[in-house]
Amino acid sequence: MVEKLQCDLVMRGGITSGIVYPRGIAKLSETYRFRSIGGTSAGAIAATGTAAAAYGAKHGEDHFATRFKTLPAELGRRPGYRPGMAGKKTVLERLFQPQKGTRRLFNVLMSGLGRQGLGAKAASVVGALCVNYWLYAVVGAAVALLPVVVLAVTSSLGSAAWILFLVGLVPALVFVVAATGVGVVRDVVIELPRNGYGLCSGSSDGRPDEAGVLPLTDWLHGFFQSVANREPAEPPVTFGDLWGTRDERAERDIELVLMTTNITRGISQRLPFLEGSWGQLFFKEAEFAKLFPASPWSSICARTQPMPAIQRISIRPASCRCPRRRTCRSCSARA
Questions:
Q1: pTM over 0.85, yes/no
Q2: From the centroid of its chain, how far is CA 84?
Q3: pLDDT the model gives residue 268
């Protein structure tokens, strides 16, 4: 058997990258063995999958020629689809599963996607607003049409009154859209912050939807584990597993570097972390537990330390000139 050449691979982000990369990676794997792999955004997901598959190829079955090659078809499959049942979601669409509080907003946003003309897209969005915010739509329609209906029933205008009613349907539509807009604003202001400022958490702790598809993070964990020849419940593949060594000066089997954005600090963040580069990083267990399935979450908790108790420190305002701050009521109030 001819030994494969070594290859470094870097993948950039992009909406369609997750669909385009797998077959390209599968083709390259016929000639090359991946050693150093990097990626950003969607390219980071493809890079992680490539590194996991490269690890799996070194420790068992090679999934590049199988799972990677068929991945676009897998994501484009429509679970439960039968002829005449148009509109069924693909696996790719089902990976994005909103929480209960953000489901209405998610459905409205999804209705505006697709290859449609401007008019058809506007009609689709209005229809989604009426369906998902139906109570708001009913209230808006009632406010607009109730006076016209009362006038048509009680007046002596006869058929002219009903013509007036039909004419009133146009402003009624405006009232309906405005009323549903109130519901949208309500979900953006209340439900979105409750859900961590995202529509989909990405994890349901292993519970699939009605079509048997897991949400994105859970599905990715299962995919990475499978191409690495591990079960989802087994310990997740780590950077240390890829490296094949704990010696920082030794040559590594597989090098994986990912770039993301640290919104809190406004910087680009490298994964794995460079020790000492960014200082300590903190997270709330209650918040992070919603974002990962059980196996990787347990691994994260096992490798972290609880934050030490923080002593409350009172800082004297720069404008304070009194020698004994605690006796200064003005400074105490400003502090």
A1: no
A2: 31
A3: 83
